[in-house]
């Protein structure tokens, strides 16, 4: 959809310009809070199964990906104090506007997943890879507090057997019914969920 791409470019450019002062503040807070880079570049699977690096503000200790799983469960000791604030408010996701501008993501679409979990998708579930992943989706609104759900020793089993399939069902519904109007509704729902 050409109109969707125009909206993505316009909104991501405007967002990056308007949010630039906040990016600087967050960058300083992250750097002083713990040693390491400002951005975390997570490996994710995008449209047509292509891997890309998803930008986030770093919310965990440096090299956290080498110290534990790719999914963060409740009470993860790798999360920094500043990281807790950024995660709770979802502000750590803002650098993904860069991914949108680069054409790797869209404002709205199925959330991009770690390759380790995409390998577990069924043939039907892989249909979500036919569109660009998004910064937000119905699944990300529904599972806004995912970390709180993933508690205890069996959190990864819970994610693979319950949470991930539920999210993929919502994402598949989006792929089948996508429209500019649906995107606008999801963006509004996302903004409203931030103030709950």
What does this molecule look like?
- Strands 1-2 form a two-stranded antiparallel sheet. The protein has a two-stranded parallel sheet with strand order 3-4.
- The relative contact order is 0.14.
- The longest helix is centred in the first third of the chain and has 32 residues, at 2-33.
- The chain has one domain (2-194).
- The protein has helices spanning 2-33, 81-89, 96-101, 115-118, 138-142, 146-149, 155-177, 180-194, and strands spanning 39-45, 51-57, 106-108, 134-136.
- It is mainly α and 196 residues long.
- The radius of gyration is 16 Å and the shape is globular.
Compose a concise summary of this entry.
It contains eight helices and four strands. With 196 residues, it is mostly helical.
Secondary-structure map:
Elements: H1 2-33, E1 39-45, E2 51-57, H2 81-89, H3 96-101, E3 106-108, H4 115-118, E4 134-136, H5 138-142, H6 146-149, H7 155-177, H8 180-194
Parallel strand pairs: 3-4
Antiparallel strand pairs: 1-2
């Amino acid at each position: 959809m050409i109109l969707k791409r125009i909206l993505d470019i316009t909104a991501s450019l405007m967002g990056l310009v308007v949010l630039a002062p906040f990016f600087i503040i967050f960058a300083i807070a992250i750097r002083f809070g713990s040693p390491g880079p400002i951005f975390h570049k997570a490996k994710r699977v995008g449209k047509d199964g292509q891997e890309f690096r998803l930008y986030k503000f770093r919310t965990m200790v440096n090299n956290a990906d080498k110290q534990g799983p790719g999914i963060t469960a409740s009470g993860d000791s790798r999360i920094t104090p500043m990281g807790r604030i950024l995660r709770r408010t979802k502000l750590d996701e803002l650098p993904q506007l860069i991914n949108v501008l680069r054409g790797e993501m869209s404002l709205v679409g199925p959330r991009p997943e770690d390759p380790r979990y995409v390998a577990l998708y069924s043939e039907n579930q892989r249909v979500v890879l036919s569109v660009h992943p998004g910064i937000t989706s119905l699944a990300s609104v529904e599972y806004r507090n995912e970390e709180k759900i993933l508690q205890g020793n069996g959190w990864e089993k819970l994610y693979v057997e319950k949470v991930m399939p539920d999210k993929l069902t919502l994402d598949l519904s989006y792929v089948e019914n996508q429209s500019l109007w649906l995107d606008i509704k999801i963006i509004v729902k996302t903004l409203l969920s931030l103030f709950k």
